[in-house]
Batch of 3 targets.
Target 1
Amino acid sequence: MQKITLKPGREKIVRQGHPWLFSGALKTRPAAEPGTMVIVESASGEACALAFYHPESDIALRILTTNANAAADTDFWRARMQEAIALRKTCMPPATDAYRLINAEGDGFPGLIADLYAGTLVLSISTAGMERLRGTVIGLFQELIGPDAVIERSEGRARSREGLAARNETVSGPEKTDSVLIMENGSRYLVDVYGGQKTGFFLDQRDNRALAGRLARGMHVLNCFSYTGGFSVSCLAGGAERVASVDLSAEANALAVKNLELNGFRADMHPVITANVFDYLRASEEQFDFVILDPPAFAKTARDVQRAARGYKDIHMQAMKRLKPGGLLASFSCSNFIDADLFSKIVRSAAEDTGLRFQVLKFLGPGADHPTLIGHPEGRYLKGILGRVVQG
Ligand code: SAH
């Protein structure tokens, strides 16, 4: 196996459990096929890890294991996948058949996301190293899960940065174009695994949807950035009196209407509105008991952070103004460039400018099927705050 040598002291990053090494940490950057598996050595020549190596990407090394003697063969990947499956067996709630089976670095598979929707497995590969292992991991999914269908949604920016073309196809199973029916905490949802956003559904919000449902009894709820109605259905299932959903995407809204009806809620009583949330909040006078804000990542790169922070602050101010005294706000950011601290500051600054007191009831994050390594804060992209506004 090819060896890559680090600059002095940089092996500490590996020891601390960060799974990425940027190009600046390497002594030299030799030519190699993107995604080649290599042995990582400290400046003094001590082997400290196995990694995927990319000669051009910013992230030059993606650590696979700190056991530099590991074989990293099919048995190695099988054991990792079995570990990932075992975790989900212990942590999934009842009446739930959709969850993330592999959460990239968090499960030891850099660049692999695999979401299981009832019997349909949707995978997404974003690194050259994982692309080389594509056949192995698909074979292991067949062996260990035996899904009815495997669909690949390998798209997006991370993938093109690794020099890989997009792939969106049925890998195995019937060629079908309709949606998949899943159950989450007893509610049913249609998921468009072929054309929907990401792999079709935002599984990372499962626990937060359940929490919102527990809080929403008797409330008038405004679900902003509602996508296919996840939070709307969970709030109604929890006894909300009325839920309004707002999203810019007509396709997502069409599915949200179907999801409401599928669970026995009338879309004429619980409006699904196609609008820009920024405009909608500004134009509306209505007051709510509970507002949910789950926008897409406003900051897609580090350079976007300032502009994104202004956008986040703006919707928080608008949302806070729509709350009745004592009203609840559940607000999220899924951008890994906005860390938990900055997110808290944004919410604080919105409360300050609206002259409201904002009580934090709970800090929120993804469910246990989205594990992240303690040494990899960049993996913790989803953060949320559940709070309550009380008069200043
Ligand atoms: N809460 C959802 C996921 C939200 S994903 C769930 O639990 O499933 C973010 C959503 O924001 C997407 O559906 C996208 O269409 C929508 N969106 C993006 N920009 C928007 C805007 N300016 N106004 C309204 N919706 C927007």
Target 2
Amino acid sequence: MLLAIDIGGTKLAAALVDHGVIVARRQVPMAVDAAQFAAAIDALVDGWPAPERISVATTGYVDGGKVYPVNRHIISFWNGFPLEQLLRARFHCPVTLFNDAQAAAWGEYCARRDMGEAAYPANLLFLTLSTGVGGGLVLDHRLRAGPHGLAGHVGHAPARLAPADGLVACGCGRLGCLEMLASGTALARQASAVFGRPLDSAALFALAASEPRAAAILDLAALGVAEAIAGLHMSVDLDAVVIGGSVGLAPGMLPRIAKALAGLPLPCPPPLSAALLGADAGLLGAAACPV
Ligand code: ADP
Ligand code: BMX
Ligand code: ZN
């Protein structure tokens, strides 16, 4: 049995995976420090059989068995965190780490391949709109992690558009990143500024049905995402773009992105779809990733 773990800025999920099928799944809020993280892992696997191996999809970039932040504001203790060593010591089995969006990209690629479609995409971009904005690329049927694990970090490409509350420095240190416009964190920040009261991303989506200023924040984020897709499409020539994450999968977000993309002058625009694996794209993608 394989243990898959998905570590995001907001949630920590674990699943027992048997031949590509989730047979048990648990989820808790992401921990705030290393001690709480170790305790949360123990709680997640309580009563489960010892795994034969572990595959992790994690926010941050993975280099040499350690996890590093791109956006330093997402997880405070993630700076060179020895995740592989910690899990090996706890479970005494092989451990493989992947960036969360890269793992999900591979999961979505495999899901399409295994459906037996004659023309499954060889060049797929997965975008997660979640606590941050993550990205993963499959190019010529191969997952591209990059020499430092950084490939696909689209959230830190310039968005070209200022957020509704003005330009904000990203936790990566740069100004104008897509993540500051279109992540759940950024949507909550913009909504709270525009409406003058604390609002989270889900509340913004609910408000958008009746309040044009709320809808405008989502449309701006969708345009930023569409611009990022267009930029990558012109760089590597995509044949599929898959959207995931709780914000990406929230009702209305995919049509907003599709409309924005359709409005851009782009040769051979790639088809856009929601993650077939839904909220399990990271877990199942990590489980399917080559070891
Ligand atoms: P993680 O980033 O840990 O992988 P998620 O994909 O769930 O987790 O993304 C978390 C972000 O999504 C948070 O900013 C949260 O406020 C936002 N979010 C969660 N549920 C919803 C929802 N139903 N609609 C809109 N935004 C949501
Ligand atoms: C950030 C970055 C990416 C990650 C993306 C989505 C950190 C800690 N994370 O851009 O590595 O893929 O967020 O991650 O720098 P999530 O936390 O939203 O799931
Ligand atoms: Zn950034």
Target 3
Amino acid sequence: MRALTVIPGKANSAAVVEMPEPPASDGPILVRTLAVGVCGTDAEIVSGQYGWPPRGEERLILGHESLGEVEAAPAGSGFSAGDRVVGIVRRPDPVPCIACGIGEWDMCRNGRYTERGIKERHGYASERFRIEPDFLVKLAPGLDALGVLLEPASVVAKAWEHIERIGRRARWEPATVLVTGAGPIGLLAALLGRQRGLDVHVLDRVTEGPKPQLVRNLGGTYHSGPMAGIGIHPDIVVECTGAASLVMDATLQLAADGIVCLAGVSSGGRRISVDVGMLNRDMVLDNNVMFGTVNANLRHYQAAAEALAKADQAWLGRLISRREPLGRWQRALTRQPDDIKVVIDFTL
Ligand code: BGC
């Protein structure tokens, strides 16, 4: 079968190659791939900066944002042929640690977790894949092609769950959220913020293209330019860019008892000068919290599926800015100015 693969650690090694059919050891459910979303992590893997192949292999099949249709499933598995499904990315570490032991592999404590399409396990960017029923999520009918947004939405659902759990440390009635970055993660974070009845502000560099209108159509306010100029003191910041200066500015703008959620991965190596004493003073005197979040467990995929099901489907559809066939994977991995979420469509 054809699969989009890469030699992790080696730039320019991505290629569509013939790979063996998925092994039975991957799980009893056989899924036909319909689409795979492309994200910044894939770009990092393709550029040789991230990613690990399965043990004993050279190539890694890419793709962790999946959408497929069950081709065959054993009786009693909870799945049957024709189901629309999304595969979970992470698998627990083999120890397992206390987090993985209770199904919270997103909080793995020893780093020995694996991730499909990223870390030591083949991903979903192949014509077919096999999977275990416990790591497969069935989509409600109606979500159709938009189901490919479930994985990024799960990451956002986890971020919101943790914000709310941290918020419960004291009496707290947040009113305003600032989302930095209007990519897929930022826009989905804004959607979930609106679904919570919050006053949503989104800050991004661009002034044109679809992003400002997408934010306004959600009932949010779009900003570009420096953070200090936007004139709000949010209760919550969901930082989705990983840009060092935004991380700092966000913290200094925060309201008392506020929470900064870091959901973007920085590229590292970019230095900015920071007055740590001032940051400390600000955070202590205002009871502020800054925390990082990555990945998602089954509970978050379920919360994300609910959030997507109740969202305006036409709005969600506008997040998918391009669909490319597998044969044009290079175009899919090359950013274009108005891109939001680019999808490799296996049905084209
Ligand atoms: C994926 C997560 C994963 C993270 C780190 C992200 O792009 O959405 O599932 O845990 O990369 O590998």
